[in-house]
Amino acid sequence: MVKEITKNSWPKFFRTFNSANLYRVADISIIDKNESTNKVASSLTFLGLGLEKKGRLIDTLRFFAGSWNPEKPAEAILAVRQPSKIFVEKDDRGFDRTVRIQAKDGTEAIMELCGESRPEPLVEKVAYSIYERRGRADGNDMGDWLQAEKIVRDTEESLIRSEN
């Protein structure tokens, strides 16, 4: 089932959508004006969709994914300028499967979600990055893991709380 999200409900939709799909695996593609499909990224850890406004107008929509970098565990993968329509498709069980964002210039961004929400792979990547930055010194596995969990949790809270 495909449903168009009305523009006045985008902020609420994003908060709900981000919470429901946090840490799912996502693939992102772009369909250009000539209807050519280009894969932007695959097998990302989805962290959220965000809106940027200029005044009262929605200017940009951003797709955020998890990153290994402990200083910046959320990374904007794609920005859609002047989004005009959003469609969400659910699977047979009622879970979000695909989000399509159409821009005023005719391009379309597509995010396909799969699997269940699992934060552990992102925490593991961040923890390993912390371990590497410490010079790969053994003996602080639990400390690295706990620090990574805090970083990921703080990032999650900031994305869900952010002004969408």
In round numbers, the mean pLDDT is 91
Radius of gyration over all CA atoms, rounded: 17 Å
> How many strand elements?
8
User: How much helical structure, as a percent, in the residues?
Assistant: 25-40%
How would you write the strand order of the largest sheet? 1-6-7-8-2-3-4-5
Topology as a string of helices (H) and strands (E): EHEEEEEEEHH
> Span between N and C termini?
25 Å
Low-confidence stretches: none
Instruction: Estimate nothing, just give the exact number of structural domains.
Output: 1
Specify the biggest β-sheet: 8 strands, antiparallel
Taken from the alpha-carbon principal axes, the silhouette is elongated
Give a verbal description of the structure.
This protein is an alpha+beta fold and 164 residues long. The chain has one domain (2-161). It is 29% helix and 43% strand. The protein has helices spanning 10-21, 120-133, 141-161; strands at residues 2-5, 25-31, 37-54, 57-66, 74-81, 83-90, 96-103, 108-114. Strands 1-6-7-8-2-3-4-5 form an 8-stranded antiparallel β-sheet. Strand 7 (96-103) and strand 8 form a beta hairpin. The model has no long low-confidence stretch (mean pLDDT 91).
Write the layout of secondary structure elements.
Blueprint: E1 2-5, H1 10-21, E2 25-31, E3 37-54, E4 57-66, E5 74-81, E6 83-90, E7 96-103, E8 108-114, H2 120-133, H3 141-161
Antiparallel strand pairs: 1-6, 2-3, 2-8, 3-4, 4-5, 6-7, 7-8
Helix pairs in contact: 2-3
